[in-house]
Amino acid sequence: MKTLDLKQVLNGQSAGQTRKTYSAGETIAQQGEAAAALFYIERGQVAVSVVLHAGKEAIVGVRGPGDFFGLRALLGGGPRRASGIALTDCIIIHIEKSLATRLLQERLEFAGMFNDYLLRQHLRDLKRIISQSYPAKERLRQTLIEISNLSASGPAQPIKITQTMLANLVGTTRSRVSLFMNNFRRRGLVEYDRAGMLIVRKTLDKALQSRE
User: Is 190:200 a contact under the CB 8 Å cutoff?
Assistant: First the structure.
C-alpha cells in the first residue's frame, strides 16, 4: 500500500471539501442537525458534547489536530447525536458525506489510515473509561494532560473551557473542580489569561505522579 499524503487528500479546496475557521467558543456542528459532513481537525481542539433528555449537557470527549469527528455522516446520515464546539481557534475541513464515502471505498490507503485512526481513538476512549475508577482529582489531572498533549508539538494553547465542562468530562461536581483548579493554579500548573482562557502547563504531567 502506498503512503498517504493526507494534506494532499484533505486540502480543503478540492470538490466535496471546504476549509473553515472557527473562533474559540463557536459551534462547528449542532446536535440534531442533518449529518451531511465528516469533520477533520487541521488545527485546534474541539469538545464533543451531548445534551441529554433532561437538558443536561455532557462533554464526552476532546479531539485535537489530526482527529475526525461527526462520524454520524458515515452511518447513513440522519440527525447528529452530538455537537462539536471549538475550545480554541480552529481550522476544520468539512468533508461532504459523498466524498468521505468515496475516499473510503476507492482509496485503499485512506481507508487504512482511517481504520488506524478509529482504533487509536477507541483505545483513547477505553483509557478514559478506565480512568473513571481513579479519584476525582486524578481524573481531572488526566483530562487536563490529555487536553495539553493535543497541542504537544508547540507551546501551551489557551483553551475556552469552563469548569462546568471540565466537571462533565471528569464526572464530578463543579465545586470540586473549582477546588482542584485553585490548587493547581497556586502551584503554577494551570493559569488563566486576561480573556479567561485556560492554559495548561506541561509540568502538570509530572505532578500526576505525586499524591497529596
Answer: yes
Question: What's the pTM?
Answer: 0.83
Give me the phi and psi of 61, to 5 degrees please: 175, 165
Q: 89-122, pLDDT tens digit by residue?
A: 999 999 999 999 999 999 999 999 999 999 999 9
Alpha-carbon span 204 to 187, nearest angstrom: 9
* Domains contained in the chain, CATH given: 6-129 (2.60.120.10), 135-207 (1.10.10.10)
Question: Where are the strands (E) in 26-106, listed by range?
Answer: 27-29, 37-43, 46-51, 57-63, 68-69, 83-86, 90-96
Q: Which of 69, 88, 74 is nearest to 30 (CA)?
A: 69
DSSP character string of 86-118 = ESS-EEEEEEEHHHHHHHHHH-HHHHHHHHHHH
The model's pLDDT over 150-172, given as tens digits with 9 standing for 90+, comes to 765 566 678 889 898 899 888 89
In the chain, what percentage of residues exceed pLDDT 70?
Answer: 92
Q: Are 15 and 87 in contact (CB under 8 A)?
A: no
Place of cell 465545586: 175
**Strand order across the beta sheet in which 83-86 lies:** 27-29, 83-86, 46-51, 57-63
